[in-house]
Write a structure and sequence with these properties.
Elements lengths: L23 E6 L5 E7 L5 E7 L11 H9 L3 E5 L18 H25 L3 E11 L1 H12 L3 E7 L5 H9 L4 E7 L6 H12 L6 E5 L7 H5 L2 H14 L3
Parallel strand pairs: 3-4, 3-5, 5-6, 6-7, 7-8
Antiparallel strand pairs: 1-2, 2-4
Length: 246
């Protein structure tokens, strides 16, 4: 795969030979020279790949550490990363906490580019079966996960938590019933808007393996994973049914 004016620098802090390590840290430089940090979870064996995309503003890759670790144990190769201006990818010039409106006016497209580059990095890992890819998105990243999937033929499944979709995303699912979708939200989030959106997204898809989890309470996005510890297990079971059928 060719990259135009994109320099990737991968630093594996855990050591390339230590496949028993929990994760390997890396960073890459985007075309506009932003350094983005992440973790790659793998047992070093061929298997499906998962890209976990965190929430905006209050989110970072640490919210997925538990899920990523459990997925790795099941044989999935998992990538998490921090958006520019979030978590470890924060700098003095790029910090979402300093001014939300100005940050998103300037960096909205850049963050989508970060997601695309992280996806490319995942595909390039030798352990990853490039025909067996899933993406997890929470909150603002529901729309971004759908946008990525609509431009990539390798993505076969989506897990979406507490987010909205635009017309492009809805039409993508309606026109591609082979894409499996797992949706989760809480009714106390946004006065029911999150659960209504997840329901609308699931209704757009006719895949028979789709699952929907609507809880009475539980918070927003990845907060659901803390509120309902069994949710991670259900997600992993669903992904295993798709990518590792017995």
């Amino acid at each position: 795969m060719k990259h135009q004016k994109i320099l990737f620098i991968f630093i594996f802090l855990a050591g390339l030979s230590d496949l028993s390590a929990q994760s390997k840290s890396f960073h890459f430089l985007s075309a506009d020279r932003v350094r983005v940090y992440g973790d790659y979870f793998t047992k070093g064996k061929k298997g499906p790949g998962l890209l976990l995309v965190h929430m905006c503003n209050i989110g970072d890759r640490s919210h997925y550490k538990s899920l990523a670790t459990k997925l790795k144990k099941k044989g999935f190769n998992v990538l998490t990363f921090d958006f520019r201006g979030h978590g470890e990818s924060t700098t003095n010039q790029l910090d979402v906490a300093k001014n939300l409106n100005k940050f998103w006016e300037r960096e909205n497209n850049g963050i989508m580019e970060d997601i695309r580059l992280a996806y490319e990095y995942l595909l390039e890992r030798p352990e990853v079966d490039s025909n067996s890819i899933a993406v997890v998105g929470a909150s603002c990243s529901v729309k971004r996960a759908l946008q990525l999937a609509s431009n990539q033929k390798n993505i076969k499944a989506l897990i979406l938590m507490s987010g909205q979709a635009n017309e492009l995303g809805i039409n993508y699912l309606a026109n591609n019933p082979e894409i499996a979708v797992f949706g989760a939200a809480a009714e106390d989030d946004g006065q029911g808007l999150s659960s209504a959106w997840i329901t609308k997204i699931l209704n757009a898809s006719t895949n028979k393996i789709n699952q929907k989890k609507i809880y009475p309470t539980g918070g927003h996005g990845t907060e659901l994973l803390k509120s309902y510890p069994n949710l991670e297990k259900e997600m992993i079971s669903w992904l295993s049914q798709i990518f590792m059928p017995k």
